[in-house]
Amino acid sequence: MGVTYLSRQKGRNKKVNTELVADHRYISYRNLIRKRELFGMDFLFDEVPNKIVPFDFQTFLNSNEQFVIGTTDCESGKAIYYNKAEHGNDILKIIRASSSVPFIAPVVEYDNRKLLDGGIIDPIPVLKAQTDGYEKNVVIMTKPEGYEKQRNKFSGLAKILYRKYPNIAQSLVEHYRFYNETISYIHQIKQKDNFYIIQPSVQLPISGIERSKEKLVNLYNLGYTDAQYHYENLLNWIEK
């Protein structure tokens, strides 16, 4: 998570994502049956940062960088963004909302809103960054070049499971289109040097709900190696 970059805790994300994943409190069907959440949200956003792998809140809050988190408002179906300057003390609650993936996590109530994963309506928030005045943007993708998202085979369930929130239900049906349109936009504007894109050099056989420590470590190592490959070019691009 980006918060760990701002808290200057190198290695913390790796430890959380690889060493705790075997714990049923992290991810399990037990969670899904008992709490209607595949990932243990109380565990991940309370016990882990406050007790097990402590998060340095003070360093995060005192950091000079701006930090913006995207969420999706269930009632309006629109993207809602929260920044560190105004909401830093509630950062874990907001990240929890932003991490609440439909179908496998419950709605989070914050700021008099009912929130879910920000990626539903704005999967790659480059337009938000440009609107905020950032001319050069580094886009870090989780899929290799050429990937095109397909319509989710479960999207038809959205109108049943989220019948109280018709705007969210419709956005879930159209999510794949939002993603693909954003990718097309990035590649169009990339020619103007507005974007530097970092994508996995290879596609590893890994699930979005992966529990294999070996596979997760391999994924981490791939990201580290790919970052080393891009390092010099990225610095040159920034300094242009």
TrEMBL record:
PROSITE patterns (UniProt xref): PNPLA
Domain PNPLA: residue ranges: 1-130
Family annotation (CDD domains): Pat_hypo_Ecoli_yjju_like
InterPro entries with a match to the protein in the record: Acyl_Trfase/lysoPLipase (IPR016035), DUF6363 (IPR045943), PNPLA_dom (IPR002641), YjjU-like (IPR037483)
Swiss-Prot/TrEMBL keywords: Lipid metabolism
GO biological process: lipid metabolic process
Source taxon at top rank: Bacteria
Short sequence motif named DGA/G, residue ranges: 117-119
Protein's UniProt name: Patatin family protein
Organism field: Bacillus anthracis (anthrax bacterium)
